[in-house]
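Below sits the subject:
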Amino acid sequence: MADPPIRTPRVPVPIPFVALSPERFIRAARAASHTLHVTNGSIAADRIQRSGVAGRVTTSADVLHEGPAPAGLPPERWRKVRARYLAECGYGGYDECLADLSEQDHAIEQSQTYDEVVLWFEHDLFDQLALIRLLDGFAARDLGLTRLSLICIGEFPGVEPFHGLGQLTPEQMGSLLGARRPVGREQLVLARHAWRVFCAPEPIGLEVALRRDTSSLPFLAAALHRHLEEFPATRNGLSRTEQQALAALDAAGGSLSFDALFRAAQLQEERPFLGDTSLLHRLHELSTDPRRLVRLEREGSGPRAQRVTLTATGAAVLAGRDDWVHIHGIDRWLGGVHLHGREAQWRWDPDHGRLVPGALVAE
């Protein structure tokens, strides 16, 4: 079946400056408020609102790099699948997660009622996945006269190191509005292809996507490459996130508080994207097998008040003398790919930077 046509938003035509009377100024200010701003979370949304930028602010903040993202589901079913996963991982109750996802999607579904939609995102995996999902949706929707614009940054003057929009002051955030650029057909086509291969049941399309020209979305290739690194490694069955956590414990003498471990793991990322809830969920997975890789011990109240200790088995897996998938099996979704059983269907070869069938590793 042929893909539906890409609906390219109207590119705004520059308007020369004209002095306005007070009455016309008020009318223009009201018109400017008919803008929808979409960003990556509550902190960035707060900065936009406090910056004085006119318009409604909403978020698109699902952790798409975790859990099922299968292709072909209608929107309501998609949200239920995502909400169930998020609730199981401790992001909130099912009803709360479903309500949040529904609210985010419904705000964006009303985009045609705005004069302009401005997307505010950054360079990491979390944001790039949110961005291509949004652009895929806009590509399939008739926006009419609604303009679609993008702000996507990987740095900001005077903010070192730059990790994300949440670091910016309201004044700094507001200064980005003038740098927004219209979203064109090339970006929509690229995003649609990238989102489809991310949601596909086989991951080979992701490697093909990385060989394409992705310059119209300059941070996308690095983000998709980082996603592939979450497949279990050929060397020991660990994802890059798990490898970095165990390496940080080993470097610290074998034990750290969870907060210290989270900070140490973040330092190993070129573009940090993982939240503390995500890392805690991974650590729980590593601690549940009889041959667990880490031991979690309470150090106070709250789920994050824990000490994490590397076990002897964890040290052996970290060194490549044993394999975590062979020990524990796997049941993990990475986009549309469901890895399950006593051997992962696909693994990541970090030495050659490519995916390989898990059967080849088993041999």
